[in-house]
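Human
Can I borrow your eye for a moment on a structure tokenisation matter? Give me a protein, with the fold worked out from its sequence. Write it directly below this note and I will take it from there.

Assistant
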Amino acid sequence: MITIERWAAEQIAAAMPEFIELLWDSVDGGASVGFLPPLTDAVAHEYWSGVHADVAAGKRIFIVALLDGKMVGAAQLELAMRQNSRHRAEVQKVLVHSSYRRRGIGQQLMAELENQAHLAKRTLLVLDTCRGDSGEPLYRKMGYIEVGVIPRYAEIENGGFCDTVIYYKQLA
């Protein structure tokens, strides 16, 4: 049984090795999550340390997917903090370990992000992903609307580039 939980900064710090492994798995699998392979331990640790700091500061909401107590996925909401943008948040790093994909975990993570956004009084969610990424059908299925495409937005493995697709969703 999958459980989805919101985690505090202390929980993130305690599970740092698991998060580093999840990020390695995603990057090695070609996910467009801001890193290129080979991902070093130092770079991954620096990234998760920043997530930890943002959660502690109240700038980010962090959720995890657990299967029998084992962390198998994670997702984040970066909360816009400026006065004129406190109604929105950006969905970031929806990660599911490759061994646990195609079980609805990504959809459960996204649903909980939307729930957390509602609790944080955020009514507009935005996200981006490389065109053709495996997450695109999920985002569309969950009601996210494509705004447009930016060509050659992100560098990918082997020196190529991917176009990024921008999505949004208005929450009730």
Remarks:
- The radius of gyration is 15 Å.
